[in-house]
Amino acid sequence: MAIEFTVSDVARRLGVSPGTIRNYSRQFAEFLSPGASPPRGQTRQFSMADAHIFVFAQRLLAKGATYDGVRIQLKLGIYLKEPMEVPPLPEPGPKKMELVPMDSIQLIIQPYIEEANRLRRERDQALARIAELERELGRLEGRLDVVP
Where are the domains of the chain? Predict the structure, then answer.
């Protein structure tokens, strides 16, 4: 049975977005296995040969080639003559979440809590100053009313 990769598998291996792999699938469909362009509603499946074509295309595009230029080289079979390796999948992250002691979390968040408290105090002082200035403004407006 042939190794098959999903869009995400190939994208992760090449360090590109899944959209880039779908674009490559459209651009180079004539050179890819049937699974790379399945009927609507079916999942794309790529063979190792498809992945090699993507590696080849990615190298050429990175050097400034156009899609047409890549297609010409694919038609000439140049990619078959170049040694290429499909990069392995990146190591997956931890399978399960590690528990962190609450003391550690408290130490990490304590500076943020202190900063939030400081900002609340500054906000309260600013609101008090605004209230004070509004009272002063009202007093001055009242004095203007008495001036003939």
Answer: 7-81, 97-148
